[in-house]
Amino acid sequence: MKDAFSLLVAGVVVAVVAWGFWHSLWGDGFAVLNLVALVVLVADNFRLRRQLKRS
Q: What sections of the chain are H helices per DSSP?
């Protein structure tokens, strides 16, 4: 019962955060998500390049 309740609370929190994200950014939400994805991919690329140089 405790696990089900905590899962429900986590779902509500995630839904509220998602609503707040889209409500505050409107049409720019996709641009923000693309920018975050691009930064993560560039950072991962640098990390992998350093790892290859060490090997």
A: 2-25, 29-54
